[in-house]
Design brief:
The complex is a heterotrimer. Chain A is mainly beta. Chain A is built from one helix and six strands, in the order βββαβββ. Chain A has one domain: Folate-binding fold, CATH 3.30.2270.10. Chain A has a four-stranded antiparallel beta sheet with strand order 3-4-5-6, with no helix packed on it. Chain A has a two-stranded antiparallel sheet with strand order 1-2. By secondary structure, chain B is α+β, with helices and mostly antiparallel strands. Helices cover 21% and strands 33% of the residues of chain B. In chain B, the strands form two sheets. Chain B has a six-stranded antiparallel beta sheet with strand order 1-2-8-11-10-9, with helices on one face. A five-stranded antiparallel beta sheet of chain B has the order 4-5-6-3-7, covered by helices on one side. In chain B, strand 5 and strand 6 form a beta hairpin. By secondary structure, chain C is of the alpha+beta class. Chain C has six domains: 147 residues, 2Fe-2S iron-sulphur cluster binding domain, sarcosine oxidase, alpha subunit, N-terminal domain (Ubiquitin-like (UB roll), Roll); 187 residues, 3-Layer(bba) Sandwich (FAD/NAD(P)-binding domain), CATH 3.50.50.60; 112 residues, FAD/NAD(P)-binding domain (3-Layer(bba) Sandwich), CATH 3.50.50; 114 residues, Gyrase A, domain 2 (2-Layer Sandwich); 89 residues, Aminomethyltransferase beta-barrel domains (Alpha-Beta Plaits, 2-Layer Sandwich); 99 residues, Elongation Factor Tu (Ef-tu), domain 3 (Beta Barrel), CATH 2.40.30.110. Chain C is built from 23 helices and 50 strands. In chain C, strands 8, 9, 12, 13, 14, 15 and 28 form a seven-stranded mixed beta sheet that branches. A six-stranded mixed beta sheet of chain C has the order 41-42-43-40-34-44. Chain C has a six-stranded antiparallel β-barrel with strand order 45-48-47-46-49-50. The chains are: A mainly beta, B alpha+beta, C alpha+beta. Chains in contact: A-B, A-C, B-C. At the B-C interface, strand 7 and helix 3 of B face strand 8, strand 31, strand 39 and helix 20 of C.
């Protein structure tokens, strides 16, 4: 699997550390309540199809990325810098 | 007064050579990492221009003594004072820097580095943050047949070991 | 028998017998030239077998090469190259290939049918592992490994290109020429020793010249193109995501010391053109496995390319036009054609050798070599004397790589074969025989056309120029199995025959995947390359379905077996993991310190002295240095992260549970970091060097983890914060100087006088050593008056030697990991043995460090029900009955009189030591409601090491609970 890092270009996935679903970007407020925090921390969709997740280019430039990909076809649609994602 | 003796990162490890390929230690006088604060890239470039004669290089590039060094970071060979425009950190002792040169250097690196280093793609002053074997490295092509490799100081021995094995593999094919 | 005398020969051996061969030719050809037909015994029944094919698909002729540790089993004699001194051995036979005792299996074959193992060896259960399996494994099998460490070298390498052309037959060569001429970077890979594919094996003309001449010219042109890389002996073994391909290269030439045997390539290609050709399939007629029965195309290959006659009088049996070619080539080479047996009624061939149309081979004779075949013809039987039968059941396009990403091929009735489905592998197109295109003219044209399309897509301009070539049609009338007396073999390599497949269907293993597992069809090293389609046809027939409805099994990489040594190349020995050495490494090793791994780092365990018999003696002495005089320890491995920026303090307040924005410049504070789920991530001290400048310390183990975490916070959670982090672990060599004489020692090396007023507990700042700018931190991980002094790494070894020498003058010396561990356990300081990922700030007694005045990572989750309260297992100390009652880490804790069973477990120990300071055995542990149970006597039980002890629960700070020694 290859991911196109916005900084470095196309690289083998072995250079990246996988974190999990990109909903981790939407951190709830401190007092959002237990169920909101549970969803944020633990509940994931596990989609068969398009998914957005977080990867860290650990053996490369050190950028955190949001990667758009498909779990069925293995297609990697695009990767963007996490810091540039609007929220 | 106590007198401390300095040792280089590759002391006792380099140089090595086999056939036309040689690996030598590079000793920059000073290495300062520069990570500009929000919105300060231009100002930092202007200062660097006057300090070391080069501006912040583009992604994956080196200009003069300024080397892109990862997300939002540059490594500058030389002294810099940036008055709070950037995080400036002395890294002069943190890196082992080696040069591999000679015809066939590309073949040696093709055994260790999982990225495209062919001359048509990875040209002079191109920089890559990538892996060499299991090591995280920064590779710069400094001349037609010469690459500069930076690895964390503590791993210099493993770098030299891996290069040595790959060099012997290339040489054995004749 | 050789058709011409070779120019040069070398000597190799087969089962010890010296033979002459031509260097570079396949061992199979050399054996044939020496009249050797029996080369192997089959997997299960130990049937005598001979060479069947002329390529990597070989099912029978597996051999072992070399001796001792360099033994390499299961190599195919059809691809193994002859070289001087090569030692080749047959496999799976005892005492010899000719008189194999286990051939007795063949006599009992009625009882050894598919599913036999599952049905017979059911009971008693324990017998399976101990008796049945070992016996069966010995009886049925292939070559054996030596069991020794492989001393040979292997390589791994990476390559990149615009276009990867897989297979260098007519279609592949045309594709490479077209793409290469257009200017694309091309890699042309072929598993043979030379480029050309079937053109090297046929008598054909291209552009009016022999095809081999055209091939030579094409290779020359490709060699002159700088943008084309040709890789022979290289099998592309797998297709993976985003244009990644695996390939195994057998490195040319003799085995020599230091020369790799194989190279495992990872090739990344923008596009791939699969021109892998096709494989001829056998016909399942009775006893079709005798030595001398071969694939018809292989017979042509041995005659045309290697100049070897597979027999003196050869019969040809086929169901398609291609078989005719074999008969014609044999005749042209002066080899007698005993008969051409065509199963079809209407074939238009005339010749002066006997032709039987509408005929089938129904029996064969000859135990160690074929003697005759019996054919059913015109309603009668006829015996034909022959020593070689060339069979052709038609061609299977080599679709494997198109199916490696879960795609399935499509059935094509015209050629009675599967062909690739479009777009199975993104970026890959197919051409030539692997696409079901069989004439040379069509292969050349198709190779050129797809390459032109690919080049255009990649932005290159190309011109298509296709040479003239023969344009024979290929007509086939399916013939899968011929009934008769005797087994009709399908999978020769795994000894599966028609009856096995029918039995599977009869026992309701009708799904092709079930049939495969029931019969082991297609599960041998060749993975059913030649046999799977025949097996499918037989299954389809037995279940009354069509072949497309029956479907194929899943095609998985690798296409040919890949040795583990090649895939793991570079990772043996020192290549397994990087070694990280501190600047004091040599000095420690020079003092005979055993080095232990801490992550990738190597750290001294202890520094032995001559009169010491055990590590404990050394450890106790080193603990004494620190408690009574002064000890020196390299702590450079701890992670050090430089944090700068207007929002540096805000960042720290957000990642630590406690507050750092209030820390004064020149001071250090201990900090606790949580994961977002409320569990402890790491701990350490952070020093404030300036208003906007901090240096964070992490544990050795978590240095990378914390760096990644900080980057995550800055880039993903709080991009609004203006702060930058960078590791300075490697920049500084840092040494702990600990003990009552620590200040005195430092005053011998520092440029300025160290006083308690200027450097109180938890102070930090700059301090020079011999004119070298360094840093000094008054922090303690031992509970003693202690400092950590740092200098740029180039001076590390020098400073370490200096500190140790001065310490020894003062009655102290260096201390290692063992002593460091004892010192911290005595003080109840935690490490990752305690903060192991399942403990909270509450558990370790630091609940009050979670500031309620601000948010931080883990703040919300740490307050969840269940993470706080009496039910939690809390950090406690345990004291043993005395110094002779050692405790073990990982032991479980129980109420004094409770049974040591799982349901009664109330906690466990995490760290243990003998404390020379307190002269007793200690443990840190987690115990249910532990903080309320200080003073209680409980039971410690370690079932693994059979240890039972009575211990007293106490505060985890065993020594100097008020902390006066560190402050004083």
């Amino acid at each position: 699997m290859r991911i196109t890092c916005p900084n470095c270009g196309e690289r083998d996935r072995r250079e990246f550390y996988y974190q999990g679903d990109a909903l981790a970007l939407d951190r709830p407020s401190q007092d959002a309540g237990l169920s909101v925090w549970d969803d944020y921390l633990h509940n994931r969709g596990n989609p068969a199809g398009d998914t957005k997740d977080l990867w860290f280019h650990e053996a490369g430039c050190g950028a955190w990325l949001v990667v758009d990909r498909n779990t069925v076809t293995h297609a990697v649609h695009k990767a963007v810098l996490a810091e540039k994602v609007k929220r | 007064m106590a007198k401390l003796i300095a040792l280089t990162p590759c002391a006792g490890l380099l140089p090595i050579s086999l056939g036309k390929i040689a690996v030598t230690e590079v000793l920059p006088d000073r290495l300062m990492s520069v990570a500009p604060f929000a919105g300060q890239n231009k100002a930092v470039s202007a200062k660097l221009k006057s300090h070391v004669g080069a501006v912040l290089s583009g992604l994956n590039r080196r200009i003069g003594g300024v080397t892109w060094f990862g997300h939002g970071t540059w490594m500058v060979a030389g002294d810099v004072a940036l008055d709070g425009l950037a995080a400036v950190t002395d890294q002069s002792d943190a890196w082992a820097v080696v040069a591999i040169s000679g015809a066939g250097s590309e073949d040696v690196l093709a055994r260790l580095v999982p990225i495209d280093l062919r001359a048509t793609v990875f040209k002079k002053n191109h920089v890559a943050k990538t892996m060499l074997g299991h090591l995280s490295v920064t590779i710069t092509r400094t001349a037609a047949n010469t690459f500069e490799i930076m690895v964390m100081r503590s791993m210099a021995q493993t770098l030299v070991h891996d290069l040595d094995v790959a060099m012997r593999g290339v040489a054995a094919r004749g | 028998m050789r058709l011409e005398q070779p120019e040069q020969t070398v000597t190799f051996t087969f089962d010890g017998r010296k033979l002459k061969g031509v260097p570079g030719e396949p061992v199979a050809a050399a054996l044939m030239a020496n009249g050797i037909k029996l080369v192997a015994r089959s997997f299960k029944y130990h049937r005598p077998r001979g060479v069947m094919s002329a390529g990597s698909e070989e099912q029978n002729a597996l051999v072992t090469v070399g001796r001792g540790a360099q033994t390499e089993p299961n190599l195919r004699a059809t691809t193994l190259e002859v070289s001087e001194g090569l030692e080749v051995f047959s496999q799976n036979a005892w005492p010899s290939l000719r008189y194999d005792m286990l051939a007795i299996n063949d006599l009992f074959s009625r009882f050894l049918a598919a599913g036999f193992y599952y049905k017979t060896f059911m009971w008693p259960r324990s017998f399976w592992e101990k008796v049945y399996e070992p016996v069966i494994r010995r009886a049925a099998g292939l070559g054996a490994l030596s069991g020794e460490t492989n001393p040979d070298d292997y390589e791994k390498a990476f390559a990149f290109c615009d276009v990867l052309v897989i297979g260098a037959g007519p279609a592949g060569l045309m594709a490479a020429l077209t793409a290469g001429r257009a200017g694309a970077d091309v890699i042309l890979a072929d598993e043979d020793t030379a480029m050309g594919g079937r053109l090297l094996r046929e008598r054909e003309e291209i552009d009016g010249k022999p095809a081999t001449a055209w091939v030579a010219a094409a290779i020359q042109e490709l060699a002159n193109l700088k943008n084309v890389r040709m890789m022979t002996r290289t099998t592309v073994t797998g297709a993976y995501d985003q244009g990644t391909y695996a390939a195994l290269e057998r490195i040319a030439g003799d085995r020599a010391a230091g020369k790799p045997l194989e190279c495992f390539w990872r090739i990344v290609a923008k596009r791939a053109i699969l021109t892998a050709g096709a494989l001829e399939r056998p016909i399942a007629f009775p006893n079709n496995d005798r030595p001398g029965i071969m694939m018809a195309s292989a017979v042509r290959a041995y005659v045309n390319r290697w100049g070897v006659a597979p027999g003196k009088s050869v019969a040809v049996f086929g169901n398609n036009d291609d078989a005719h070619r074999t008969a014609q080539d044999l005749q042209a080479a002066g080899i007698k054609v005993a008969a051409l047996i065509d199963s079809r009624d209407d074939t238009d061939i005339t010749s002066d050798f006997p032709i039987y149309t509408g005929a089938q081979v129904v029996a064969t004779k000859g135990r160690h070599a074929l003697e005759s075949v019996t054919i059913a013809y015109n309603g009668g039987r006829r015996v034909i004397r022959t020593d070689c039968l060339a069979m052709s059941g038609g061609w299977n396009p080599t679709v494997h790589l198109t199916c490696h990403m879960n795609g399935r091929p499509t059935w094509n009735t015209d050629i009675a074969s599967f062909v690739p489905s479009a777009e199975n592998v993104p970026g890959m197109v197919t051409a030539g025989a692997c696409n079901g295109t069989f004439s040379t003219a069509d292969c050349l044209a198709e190779g050129a056309a797809v390459a032109a399309d690919v080049a255009k897509d990649l932005g290159f301009k190309s011109r298509v120029k296709v040479p003239q070539a023969e344009d024979r049609t290929y007509a086939i009338s399916p013939l899968w199995a011929v009934p008769g007396k005797g087994r009709q073999w399908i999978d020769f390599q795994n000894d599966v025959h028609v009856k096995d497949i029918k039995l599977a269907a009869q026992e309701n293993f009708r799904s092709v995947e079930h049939m495969k597992r029931y019969t082991t069809q297609g599960m041998a090293p060749d993975q059913g390359k030649s046999s799977n389609v025949v097996a499918l046809a037989v299954l389809a027939d037995a279940t009354g379905r069509g072949i497309p409805e029956t479907g194929t099994t899943t095609f998985r990489p690798p296409y040919v077996p890949v040795s583990i040594a090649a895939m793991g190349a570079g990772s043996q020995g020192k290549g397994f993991a990087p070694e990280r050495f501190t600047t004091s490494h040599k000095a420690s090793v020079g003092r005979d310190a055993p080095m232990i791994e801490a992550g990738l780092w190597y750290r001294p365990s202890y520094f032995p002295q001559k009169d010491e018999a055990t590590w404990r003696e050394a450890c106790d002495r080193e603990v004494g240095y620190v408690r009574n005089a002064v000890g020196v320890c390299d702590v450079s491995t701890l992670g050090k992260i430089d944090i700068q920026g207007p929002d540096a303090a805000t960042l720290l307040d957000f990642v630590y549970t406690n507050t750092f924005s209030t820390l004064k410049v020149g001071k250090v504070r201990y900090g606790l970091m949580l994961r977002e789920d409320g569990h402890v991530l790491d701990d350490g001290t952070t020093a404030r060097l300036g208003e906007q400048h901090f240096v964070m310390t992490t544990t050795t183990a978590a240095a990378g983890l914390v760096m990644r975490h900080l980057e995550f916070v800055l880039q993903a959670l709080r991009p609004d914060l203006d702060a930058n982090v960078i590791s300075v672990t490697e920049q500084w060599a840092q040494f702990a100087v600990a003990g009552p004489k620590a200040r005195a020692l430092l005053n011998t090396v520092l440029d300025q006088e160290l006083t308690d007023e200027a450097w109180p507990f938890m102070a930090c700042g700059e301090a020079n050593v011999g004119g070298v700018p360094g840093r000094l931190f008054r922090i303690s991980f031992s509970g003693e008056h202690a400092y950590e002094v740092a200098v740029p790494s180039r001076y590390g070894e020098s400073l370490f030697r200096m500190l140790v020498a001065q310490a020894e003058v003062m009655g102290g010396g260096p201390y290692g990991m063992e002593a460091l561990n004892v010192l911290r356990i005595e003080k109840g300081f935690i490490t990752h043995a305690e903060i192991h990922g399942r403990t909270t700030a509450f558990d370790i007694g630091m609940g009050r460090m979670v500031s309620q005045k601000k948010d931080c990572i883990g703040h919300a989750a740490a307050a969840r029900p269940g993470l706080i309260g009496e039910g939690r297992q809390q950090l406690v100390g345990l004291r043993a009955k005395g110094p002779d009652h050692p405790l073990t880490a990982g032991a479980h804790l129980f109420e004094k009189d409770a049974d040591a069973t799982r349901v009664n477990s109330q906690g466990y120990t995490t760290s243990v030591c003998y404390s020379p300071t307190l002269d007793t055995q200690l443990a840190l542990a987690f115990l249910e409601n532990g903080r309320a149970r200080h003073g209680e006597v409980i039971k410690l039980r370690d079932h693994l090491r059979d240890v039972t002890e009575t211990v007293v629960v106490c505060d985890p700070v065993f020594f100097d609970p008020t902390g006066g020694r560190a402050r004083g």
